[in-house]
Structure formats: C-alpha cells, structure tokens
UniProtKB/TrEMBL annotation:
It is a multi-pass membrane protein. Keywords: Cell membrane, Membrane, Transmembrane, Transmembrane helix. One of its GO terms (molecular function) is transmembrane transporter activity. It is found in: Cell membrane. The chain crosses the membrane at residues 21-41, 285-307, 341-362, 382-404. Signal peptide: none annotated. It comes from bioreactor metagenome. GO terms for cellular component: plasma membrane. This is Macrolide export ATP-binding/permease protein MacB. Residues 20-244 form the MacB-like periplasmic core domain. Residues 291-410 form the ABC3 transporter permease C-terminal domain.
C-alpha cells in the first residue's frame, strides 16, 4: 500500500511540475535554515579531529578568587599553583591538562619574522586528551615538560609557511626569544575545535612569566583546564572530588579562597551557550531554540498548506469514492501524508545540501574568521537523523491540516467535489 502511495505521488509530481517545484524549493529553504542552526549546535557538541572525546570532557573556563573577609572578588583564570594543587592531584579523571593561548610572532634563527601565530602553552597530558594526527615526529613528553625543555609541535600549514616543507624535525623556531626544537608536525586544526586549536604547541614550563603569573594570594593566573573522564558517568564523581581538593587547598590560604562558579561544565553546556561564569539552563535553551526552529518550519508550512489543499481539492471525488468503498479515516489521512512525504523528502535532501553551502558561505559570521569546516564536522549521524525528523515534522505541518479536513468531509459532499 505504501509503495502504491509513493507511485501515485511521483505521478502527481509529474502532472503538476511547476507547483511541485515550488513546494520542493519552499521545503528545501525551510529545512536549510533549520539545519544551519542544527549544524552550528553539532559543531559545538559532536566529536571530530582532534577533539574526538568531547562526550567525556569537562571544562574549567573561569576561576574566582574571593577574599575570605568577603570584600574582594576576582574573576579570571587560574595560576599554575591551582592547576597543580586542585587538578593534577585528581584521581578520578583519566587525564587533566592546563592550557594558555597567546598570539605570538614565530621567527627562524637569525631571521626575524613578524607574522603572529596562535601558540598554546600546555602540558604532556594535552596529547592524551586530544587525538592529533602526526604527519611526522611525536609530541613533547612528560620529562620534557617537567624539565622545561624547549620543544614544539607545529601544524603542517605553519611548517610550510616557515620552511616551505613539512620535513622539519629537529629544526629550530624562535618564540618569545627562546629557541624551540620541532618535535612533531600535526595536521592543521580548525578554529572550531577551540580547546585544542593552535598553530604551535609548547610546554608552559618554558615560560617563566606564565609559571610565576599569580595574584590574589597565588590563585589567579592565566590557565584554563580540560578534564577527560574515563566515562561520562564519572562527571558527578569528578565534581565531588574537585570540591574536596578545592576545600583542602583553601584551608592553606590566608587571604583568599578559590572557586569555580558553575564549572566544570560539559560539552553539552558549551553547545547550549554556557561559557565562563554564565550557565544556560536546559529549559531556557529548549524554549529559545525550539521556538526559533518551529517558527522557521511553521511559516513555510503554512504557505505549503494552500498548495497541498489545492492539490487535494482536485481529487475530492477520488477521496469520496474511496470512502464509499470503506476507506477509513486513518487510511485517508495516511495516504495524503505518504504522498506529501515524497515532496518533503526531496525538499529535505535539497535543503541539507543548501545548508552545507549556506554554512560555508556564512561561516566567518556564524563562527570565527577563517574557520575551517571539514567533513568530520558536517557528516555526523545526528545530521541525517535531525534532517529526517524535521522533514517528517514539515510533512505533518504542511499536509496534516488538509488531510484532516478532507478525511472528515461527508461522502456525498466529497463525491460532488464541493468546497
């Protein structure tokens, strides 16, 4: 029966090509706008190179240093001391890493260059949390980090800009007047992967100013922290242990105490818009985003209702005849929905392609400037599931009302073809 409905729908498309094209394009544009919203959310939430473990990640994006007498409150990032005492000491997580980013010129020995690159100061745990694709070489190791040995990992794009080749192992670059030996070259990272993105990575123990950057009783500094859990079920345990470590650390402080406000936050929190000291509730996010998506679907759906109604009107005698021969209310409604589904499926497929193009065109506005978008970000299982869901919803909104009206009409009126 479903196969017969689909054949009939295809035949109707051929008979009314102009109307069919208008319906398909209208559906495609609606689905494209909705899918841009979905893709932006997916880029923030789903795992892709090199942040494949996002479903097991927690993030500290803000640190509070509050005076114990309650007269002063300092918000920012944390010092190396807090990283060491409150985070490296955690037992529940699989790995912890501290990061600090800065745009700095990278030069060659005996050749001063002035182009700035994003440099990420981090530790050896960084390479266990994020899964980089090394073209050559390897990351700096724990011994290098602890000893403050100036080793660097750079991207293939950075290597080509500086040396004209990616065969650069053992060569030196100059960052902040320090010579760094290149230990590895990795595939370029998109800016959308904000926590792992950089153009060069070096041990933060090589920068004395960063190690000594601390104020508010040694609490405030320059670092954020990423935590990799063994399983997402461990999030609650990690938060509990962090509170214990924080309380222990604060006992030794005379003037200030450290706190992390709403942190640590999950990847889902970040995708919903939480950042730093601002936490977005699930209810507010669903209400705001859901209303936007429904509006994007409802407006074109209301326009398509007229097209669908006109198409059904021409077949009222056929519907009346089917009712006379015993077709039930549910069968008539399902027939109209199945037939309209062909249009919405075609429009959905076209709309998905439109959304990829629209996102690429507007990525500098919707994301960061010069953000690289790759297939890992776009072609996720959730993309196709979301597209199918919105196609079915669009089908119901645009064909449901005409289907319900025609199915309720008396047999005699339907056979006469009256309005």
């Amino acid at each position: 029966m479903i196969k017969q409905h689909i054949k009939q729908a295809v035949q109707l498309l051929k008979e009314n090509r102009l109307v069919s094209c208008i319906s398909i394009i209208g559906t495609a544009l609606s689905i494209a706008m909705v899918m841009v919203v979905v893709l932006l959310f997916q880029i923030q939430l789903s795992g892709y190179y090199p942040e494949y473990n996002r479903d097991r990640m927690l993030y500290i994006q803000g640190t509070e240093a509050t005076s114990k007498n309650g007269t002063d409150n300092n918000r920012g990032n944390m010092s190396a001391e807090v990283v060491r005492e409150c985070f490296y000491s955690l037992k529940t997580p699989e790995k912890v890493t501290a990061i600090y980013s800065e745009d700095l010129p990278i030069s060659l020995p005996n050749k001063r260059l002035f182009k700035e690159y994003n440099v990420k100061y981090t530790d050896d745990g960084f390479w266990s949390i994020f899964n980089f694709r090394f073209i050559t070489g390897k990351p700096f190791e724990k011994a290098d980090f602890l000893s403050g040995i100036p080793k660097a990992v750079i991207t293939d794009q950075t290597a080509r800009e500086l040396f004209g080749t990616t065969d650069v192992l053992g060569k030196n670059i100059v960052i902040n007047f320090i010579d760094y030996s290149i230990a590895g070259v990795v595939k370029e990272v998109s800016k959308a992967a904000r926590d792992s993105y950089a153009e060069a990575w070096i041990p933060y123990t090589t920068k004395d100013q960063l190690m000594s950057l601390q104020y508010a009783d040694g609490i405030s500094g320059g670092f954020n922290v990423c935590i990799l859990a063994k399983h997402s079920k461990d999030f609650a345990s990690i938060r509990t242990e962090l509170k214990q470590q924080t309380a222990r650390y604060n006992e030794g402080k005379q003037l200030y105490k450290v706190g992390f406000a709403e942190n640590p936050i999950s990847r889902l929190d970040i995708a919903m818009g939480s950042e730093g000291f601002r936490k977005v509730d699930y209810k507010d996010f669903i209400l705001e985003t859901g209303s936007l998506v429904l509006f994007m679907l409802l407006v074109p759906a209301l326009n398509l209702i007229g097209v669908t109604q006109a198409s059904i009107q021409r077949r009222k005698s056929e519907v009346g005849l089917r009712k006379a021969f015993g077709a039930t209310y549910s069968k008539l409604v399902s027939q109209i929905l199945y037939e309209n589904l062909v249009i919405t499926l075609l429009g959905g497929a076209l709309g998905l392609l439109f959304s990829f193009g629209l996102l690429n065109i507007s990525k500098d506005f919707l994301l960061q400037n010069n953000t690289m978008i790759n297939s890992d970000m776009l072609f996720q299982p959730g993309t196709f599931v979301a597209t199918l869901f919105f196609v079915l919803l669009m089908n119901f909104l645009s064909a449901g009302i005409p289907a319900l009206r025609i199915a309720k009409q008396p047999i005699v009126e339907a056979l006469k073809g009256n309005e």
